[in-house]
User: Which sequence fits this backbone?
């Protein structure tokens, strides 16, 4: 069986399904499903998320200079689907779905407490890559459900049922 040419698209799979939450300068909270998210540095620890400029959260994130990467588990599928298919322009998505909202400890942003992991980030750089602007966030704090933390304080993702 030989190699064949494949369709050119975002072909690096699998990729994590994440929800990015943010708060505007006027205190409005929002969250959206993000397709592009990855580690981009281990020293200092940083992640990168790609946001389409037409998304409601884009200006909120740019203005605030911070965001939270919330990693949902399988039991968060309904929330993930809703936040990924509705816009804040049409109403308060988080209120509509009854999301449990916490307060980030290092930045002014909401945590999606229903998700097993939340990563607080402050923006240190960004690059426009075509359809998305990739925001590079320095990780300031990581919250995780206690049963996911191993004896060294690291998250054991094997214990988590990811989407």
Assistant:
């Amino acid at each position: 069986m030989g190699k064949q040419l494949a369709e050119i698209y975002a072909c690096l799979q699998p990729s994590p399904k994440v929800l990015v939450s943010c708060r505007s300068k006027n205190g409005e909270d929002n969250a959206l499903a993000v397709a592009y998210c990855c580690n981009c540095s281990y020293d200092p620890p940083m992640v990168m998320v790609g946001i389409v400029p037409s998304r409601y959260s884009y200006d909120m994130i740019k203005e605030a200079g911070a965001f939270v990467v919330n990693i949902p588990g399988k039991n968060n599928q309904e929330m993930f689907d809703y936040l990924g298919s509705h816009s804040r322009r049409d109403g308060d998505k988080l209120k509509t779905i009854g999301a449990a909202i916490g307060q980030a400890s290092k930045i002014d942003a909401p945590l999606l407490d229903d998700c097993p992991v939340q990563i607080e980030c402050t923006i240190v750089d960004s690059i426009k890559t075509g359809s998305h602007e990739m925001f590079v966030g320095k990780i300031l704090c990581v919250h995780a459900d206690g049963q996911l933390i191993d004896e060294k304080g690291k998250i054991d993702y094997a214990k988590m049922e990811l989407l």
